[in-house]
Amino acid sequence: MKLTLIKPNIGRLEHSLYVDEGRMEPLQLGVLAGLTPTGVDIVLYDDRLEAIPYDEPTDLVAITVETYTARRAYEIGAEFRQRGVPVIMGGMQPTLIPEEVQPHADSIYIGDAEFRWREVIEDARRGRLKPVYQASVGPPQPGTLTRRDIFKGKGYLPITLMQFSRGCRFACTFCAVSTFFDKTQYCRDVREVVQEIEAAERQIIFFVDDNLLSNFEAAKELCRALIPLRVHWVSQGSIDMTQDRELMALMVKSGCIGMVVGFESITPHSLRWMKKSPNFIGGFNDYKPQLDIIRDYGIQLWAAFTLGHDHDTRESIEQTLDFAWENKFPLAAFNILVPYPGTPLYQKLAAENRLLYDGKWWLHPEYRFNYAAFQPKNMSPEELTEACWHLRSTYNSFSSLVRRAFDLKTNMRSLYKLGVYLRYSPIFRKEVFKKHGMRFGLR
What we know:
Elements: E1 2-7, E2 11-12, H1 27-35, E3 41-46, E4 60-64, H2 70-82, E5 87-90, H3 92-96, H4 98-101, E6 107-110, H5 117-125, E7 132-134, E8 160-162, E9 165-167, H6 176-181, E10 185-187, H7 190-199, E11 204-207, H8 216-226, E12 232-237, H9 245-253, E13 256-264, H10 268-273, H11 288-296, E14 300-307, H12 314-327, E15 331-336, H13 344-351, H14 381-395, H15 398-405, H16 415-435, E16 439-440
Parallel strand pairs: 1-3, 1-4, 4-5, 5-6, 6-7, 8-11, 11-12, 12-13, 13-14, 14-15
Antiparallel strand pairs: 2-16, 9-10
Helix pairs in contact: 7-8, 8-9, 12-14
């Protein structure tokens, strides 16, 4: 039996195909390959960088589908199904809105792959693929290592993607992860994480966890296990990590060089509405005490903001740029608030008749990447789109990159950290400018 794994692209630029130069390994497909029983021939095609050979013989096509890649995923699935090849789709989109995905595939997989994927393969062997596989959610990869041989020769960034946990204990209203995992974090066996790191060729690890630090004690256990491995790592976490100095010290000692932190807003009213509770732990005070602690430990921050909440104004959005500059974040993402399907935010905007593009912006032919998909309270959708683009383009100008490089407590703390900044900030800058306004799908 032959299994073909597909990582869809988002779509295309107005003038040409989009090639993701900052692409990382599609970890979810490496995990799927690791879960597949022996005796199955597996190939991976990454739509972000290579043409998909639709006429190449295969017995089953598995496509991972996210909201941003749904339109393109449906195009790919249609090509294979026209050739009589069965297609199964899994990932966030089928789990959040299975009724949308189901017409585009012979089978859909809802939930985590670990718990029924072997059954899928056995059913495919017998030609008896079920229309729906409903699985639970739980700890990542129990007893299974990622198969990384399928990534060979595809030009991914020299970063090994890995996961220690899935989910997060917080209940942010805009977050699809909170909906998917029902405000719960599931942790992997630390010994298996160590085993996978020891088998990896690259010594820079990106833990793709939704919030690696959701459980402080579990995070400490992981950090203690990482110390002897002498790796460098980055991940995603919440700013309440500063409440535990032992955790901070262990993070640095275990090789943490940076964290993606969701500040989301500098406006308390917006934070309260989105239920961003970790940002209020210790009291909200413009994040200064927390940022002082993080800088003292020398951790580089990728600050993530979502803009367009009901309490946001043009002035508060501009103040967000000033806040980022003042704190010299090595990287900052100024994202328009996105109403992901199935989230409390989406339901609220739908009830108020404020969704644009017929509600399903991710499928609408007129929607473009980084455009507002709803009617904001205090400005027009076009004004919100323009304001967020101004922040992105300004913060990622060459002069801004140079200005932020010379920060003694973070980027200049070591030659290694300076090297990380000089290598990856230009890649991020290029992708920011290239992807703005991109079309979804190729047709």
